[in-house]
Amino acid sequence: MNKTTAALNIERRQQNSAASSSESTSLNDGNDMARDNGSPNQLTTALLRTYTYFWKENKWVEWVLDLRYRPTMLKQMNESRVLRLVRETGEISKTDISKSLHLGMSTTMRLVDSLIENGFLVAKGTGTSTGGRPPSIVGINTSSMFALGLELGRQTTRIVLLNLLGSIHESASIATEEVDEPRKIIPFIRNFLLQSTVDESAILGIGVAVPGPFDSNTGSILNLVDFPHSWSNAPIERLISEEFGFKCYLANNADVAALSEVWSGGRNSSDGLMFVLGEMGFGMGLVLNGQIWSGHSNAAGELAHVIVDMEGEKCTCGKQGCLNTYSSVGAIQNALRKKLGKSENFRDFLQKAEQRHEPEYSIAKTALQALQTAVMSTIAIVDPEEVVLGGQYMLDAAALAPNMFNKMVVTLHEGTGKNVTLTNFDVMAVALGAGMLVLYDIYDHTYVLK
Description:
Number of helices: 16
Mean pLDDT: 82
Low-confidence stretches: 1-38, 446-450
Largest sheet: 5 strands, mixed
CATH architecture of the largest domain: 2-Layer Sandwich
C-alpha cells in the first residue's frame, strides 16, 4: 500500500469516528497505547492522532529530517567530545577515551580513526602495557590545520597563524595607518600567507577582532572611535571571505582577549573571567562557562564610558565624567599639554611618574585611581571569579611604573576579594583570541557569540 492510499484510508476512518468522538487530536504521551489492550477503537484513535500530528500539522517533515541528520549530528558531537578530551589531556590512549567519555570501544575506534584520517588527531605510538597489547596513544595534530587571527588595533594591526592547540605558528604586524581603509587589509593578509610555510588550503578560517561595535548579522564594522573613517560600516566578513574563501568570525577585541586567557592561559571561566583591555582607551571582555558574553547588541564591556565622576569633564560620547576623560592616553596627553604646554611619549611619561616627577606623577595617580574605580564598579556588578589586566597600556604601566601599577592591583584585590593578574600573552592576547574563535568552532559545534 503506497503512502497516498494509506493516508486516504486513515482519513475515511477519521470521518467515520468523528461523530462519536470529541477527543483532542493532538498527539498524547503514549499512555493510550499502553492502556488499549488491543482494542480496535483505541488503536484507531491512536493512529488518527499520530496521522494528524505528523501529516496534517506537517510534523512528519521535522521527524524525517531529524532521523536523517541525527546520526551525523551525533557523530559530530562525539567527535567534538573526543577532540576536547585529547586537547585537555595532551596525549591519551583510545582505551582511556572510551572510559572517560563512556563510549563503546568500537565507537571510539571509529571516531578516532575518522579524526586521524581528517587530520585532527595523530597517532603518538603506544603506551606502557599493563598486561596484553600496549595501548595506542593519540594527540592533537599540530601540523595539519591552522587558524588565522587578525587584530585591527588603533595603532597596530596584527595577524597570527595558530595550530590546533592554539599555539602561535607564525605572526606579523603593521602600523594601522598603513591599512587605513578596508581594501588595504587584503594585501596585508595575502602577503602574510605568501610568506607563510603553511599552505592556504590548510587554513580553517579567520577570526577578526575590532576595537568597537560591530553588526554580527551583516559581518560589518560600525563606527569606531579614533579609527580611520573609511572603516565605518565596512563589510569586513564579506571582503575577506570573497577574497580568500575563508569562513570569517567577527568579535570585539576585549572579548577575544578574555577567550585567549581561558583557552591557552590555563584560567578557569566556569564562574566568569573578566579581561580589562587597556590600549588607547579601555574595554572589558567577559567569558562565562567558556562562552563569550558580548551583550544584546555586541556592546557589552564599554569600560571606557563607565562614569567615575558625575561632575567630571564632558566625554566625546556626550556624558560627563567617563573613564576615558581621565585615564585614556588621549586624556593624559591633554593633561600634560595643560600643565606643560606640550605632550610626552606615553612610556616616557610613565617613567617620570614612577620617579614622582611632577606633573607626571599627579596625572598618573589621577588616571590610575579613575581606572581603579571603574574596574571595581564593574567587578561589583559582574562578580567574576578572576580578573586579568592586559593591553599595551597595562603592560607599559606594569613595566615602567611598577610601584604605582602594583598599588592599584593590590587595592583591586583587597577591595573586591578577586584574583587580579596581568595577562599571560603580552600584546598578542587579542590576535591570539581572534584565531581561537575559529578553533572554538572546531572543538565545539555549539559555539555562539552571545
